[in-house]
Amino acid sequence: MGQMYPILGVIPAMASLDPYISDYLRGFSSESSECALGLVQGNTDSVRELQRLTATSGEESADTHLRMLSTPSNLNVLEGATVLLPCNVLNLDRNVRIWKHLPSRILFSGTVSVSRDAQIELVNGSSLRISAITPQYAGEYVCLISHHLALNVTHRIRVLVPPSIHPDPHSGKVIVRKGNPASFSCKASGVPKPVVTWSYEHGDSQSSQLPSGVRQVNGGTELQISSVDVHHSGTYRCSAENDVGEPASTAFNFTVLYAPDLTVKPEWIHGDEGATVEFACTSHSAPPSHVTWMKGDPKHNTSLQSSDRIRMRDKLTPPTTMESWLKLQRLRKEDLGTYACVAKNTVGLSYKMVEISGLAEPVQLRGEESGESSFLLTWTAKSYSPVIEYLLKIRRHKVSLSVFRFHLYSLVNQFASKAASKRESEQFSFRASPLNREEQVTLSLTMSDNCSKMGFTKSI
Question: pTM for the complete prediction?
Answer without folding.
Answer: 0.58
